[in-house]
Amino acid sequence: MTADSTRPAATASGSFAPLRQPVFAVLWAATVLGNIGSFMRDVASSWMVTELSASPAAVALIQTAATLPIFLLAIPAGVLSDILDRRRFLIGIQILLAAVSASLLLLARTNTLTVEYLVALTFVGGIGAALMGPTWQSIVPELVPRSDLKNAVALNSLGINIARALGPAAGGLLLASFGAAAAYGADVASYVFVIAALVWWKRPKAEASALNEQFFGAFRAGLRYARSSRELHVVLLRAAVFFLFASSVWALLPLVARRMLGGSAGFYGVMLGAVGAGAILGALVLPRLRKRLDADGLVLLSSVLSAAVMAALSTAPPQWAAVLLMLVLGLGWIIALTTLNGVAQAVLPNWVRGRGLAIYLMVFNGAMAGGSLAWGLFAQGVGIPTALLIGAAGLVAISLVFHRIKLPTGEADLQASNHWPEPLLAEPVAHDRGPVMIQVEYQVRRQDLPAFIEAMQHVARERRRDGAYAWGIAEHTGEPGRVIEWFLVESWAEHLRQHQRVSKADADLQAQALRFHIGPERPVVHHFLALDAASAASAASAASGPAQAPAHGHAH
Known about the structure:
This protein is mainly α. It has helices at 22-52, 56-83, 86-109, 115-143, 149-178, 180-200, 215-228, 230-260, 265-292, 295-313, 319-346, 353-382, 384-402, 449-466, 492-501, 504-514, 533-543; strands at 436-443, 470-475, 482-489, 524-529, 552-554.
């Protein structure tokens, strides 16, 4: 979600305006029901593993099984959400998740449920969640007008927190009253509504384009962008260290409820419901907090709140106090999630947002999965209270250390600039032909070369983010000040996509370098295509026709 997407309805007119769109309203309501069912299933699985095994590592393994697939499949999922029919893809995923819950229902009814089955089916459910996340986020702009987009994202966040508040409590009550099969059965029923809503949605067919990305090309483009974006690196680093330590409370919470607090399944559901209620409260107070704290301050506040809850839980407080602590945990958790997610979205341009967010989700879930397993094994050795205390101390310490690495403000204009002229061609070029070398010729005064090279380093990162896999700069040996910038792109189609990807912020970076150019005209751009035997023969055949001008153009 965006950084301001959780603003409460009371403070913004039209916050519920997206619900006037029938398709969005139906899918939103179905999603809330589906998430309630998912939380029911999660509560049942987390509690059942405590009955089937006394090992803290086994309990933590459920959390790992749920989050590890998202770590492994986040980027492929982000790519698939861009190249497949999203409606059909979502229907297939929902059928897969319904099959997982139906299998759990059957095993619970026949009393054949084991830790191994729980972990395996939770892992398959995690695969479904990994595939669904980026796709579900990406369909929102299709369902509402652009003016309602932020409100639609806010409503999605509200829906998740409503489900988080109701689902665990309902699942715990069903589990305590009728057994695990009832909770799993309720989850299966919820998928009926979600699938029916997706089938009812008549999504217009996307028009095919010659520049539509294929899976592996899109995959590589996403990785290149992530590798070259320093702002994204900061977000990923801050998220990783926070969730690595904060995962301790989630990994050990079922054991805290059962062993330390002596609670039942119903009580565990109430605790998780309180987390959801705290998250809703956090969404309401967050706009006020943003006026007083920047993103770094909000993450630090979340760390302190979460650590305080962990330390208090280590003392085995009364059950009523534990429920109040869960409210605080939900408050701190939503502050961190919203802030880090919002910054991630703010630093990503539209063309790579799904893949960038998928990488963020990979880091988030990887930290949660690895952290949960590690804290479970650690608690097995030192005890649950000690593990919680060390986790709390570590969370505060690591947050203070990394507080010095400031999160980006995300204020750059990432809208496409469309300022880069289309290349001039002597003849049509096959889109799959490549690699392509682009050369840009500058004339720079010798005394300006150090400043020019410094400015070009920023341009280099921009080129790599937008699709270049190699970049360099060189000076002519016979003409001092004649400088060539060159970069390589894997195909002609990918270079054409570069023209569409350059943002207004990128154009500003290019302008900073361009001010050192002293030539009578703008720098000249040359395009060179790799030659092999087949392409050389084609070029020779073309040469028999009328003479053609080489492909070139003026710099952007």
